[in-house]
Amino acid sequence: MATVLIDSFGRKAVDLRVSLTDRCNLRCTYCMPEEGLQWLAKPQLLTDDEIVRLVRIAVTGLGVTEVRFTGGEPLLRPGLVSVVERCAALEPRPELSLTTNGIGLARTAAALADAGLDRVNVSLDTLDPAVFRTLTRRDRHRDVLDGLAAAEKAGLTPVKVNSVLMRGVNDHEAPDLLAHCLEQGYELRFIEQMPLDAQHGWDRSSMVTAEEILERLSARFTLTPEPGALRGAAPAERWTVDGGPGTVGVIASVTRPFCRACDRTRLTADGQVRTCLFAREETDLRGALRGGGSDAEIAELWRAAMWGKKAGAGIDDPGFLQPDRPMSAIGG
């Protein structure tokens, strides 16, 4: 019996993304409407014990080596620190990271580091508090900056910053964002806006592309492709800035997809396995958990799901359909 998550194209999934909640305390315009969404009811969510059990099955029986906790906003999960601590105690120990909007990170960074979290990715799309209010519909810009500083202080490094540029809103800030991250010692990653908004209003023609981002950055900085840095399964292409040591990355999921080397498997907050961010199919592990399924039976369900993973996301296919679930419900 295979002890890895492998698909029919030979790709092995060693990176597990675990959504802890679909709820969020921001209302980013490229993600959800101002009034929010219909959140999952508590009985639908995996319990802390169920999350840890599934992570244990993935790590000890299916070859997963990296676990990323996502949301929604994972800091809204009451048992987050305990979940991290229990996953850090697994053998073999997985690398543990967290993707967050940074709100609340200032008061939790130290506890998360003590629990065993290795690093964080924090979303920051602008350095302007007014633009932040426009983008997120919330006045929490200072909280994000404080959260970043707390993560650095707690040793959750390298602290990575994720930025999405919106045309006519914050796309002019690309060089300033990079200068700020270089000054603070953060690793910046620009991400092309993806068709994962709840409103289904994504328009490829208005998306700021990787090529445009690099053009804007190159007007102020000298960018050199990282020597010997093969992208492999890493989503970001990286460049050294002004001779180093600082770097910048661009995740071009739309214009330069990396499906051929994808090594991810995804678990939603309600216990569904997704083989791809853009998948329209899911496999229910929560039902198996609550129906008394053994670890071996759950692992076999997971393996079968991953074996059926498609060759690519299909964004360029004429028949591409955006998944029903938005990013906040899938997990980053």
Task: Characterize this entry briefly.
By secondary structure, the chain is of the alpha/beta class. Helices cover 30% and strands 16% of the residues.
Could you give the topology of this structure?
Blueprint: E1 15-19, H1 48-61, E2 66-70, H2 80-88, E3 95-100, H3 105-115, E4 119-123, H4 129-136, H5 141-154, E5 160-164, H6 174-184, E6 187-191, H7 210-218, E7 223-225, E8 237-241, E9 247-251, E10 264-267, E11 272-274, E12 283-284, H8 286-290, H9 295-307, H10 327-330
Parallel strand pairs: 1-2, 1-10, 2-3, 3-4, 4-5, 5-6, 6-9
Antiparallel strand pairs: 7-8, 8-9, 10-11, 11-12
Helix pairs in contact: 1-2, 1-9, 2-3, 3-5
Can you offer a commentary on this structure?
It is a single chain. By secondary structure, the chain is an alpha/beta fold. It has a single domain (15-330), classed as Aldolase class I (TIM Barrel), CATH 3.20.20.70. It has helices at 48-61, 80-88, 105-115, 129-136, 141-154, 174-184, 210-218, 286-290, 295-307, 327-330, and strands spanning 15-19, 66-70, 95-100, 119-123, 160-164, 187-191, 223-225, 237-241, 247-251, 264-267, 272-274, 283-284. It has a twelve-stranded mixed sheet with strand order 7-8-9-6-5-4-3-2-1-10-11-12. Helix 3 (105-115) packs parallel to helix 5 (141-154).
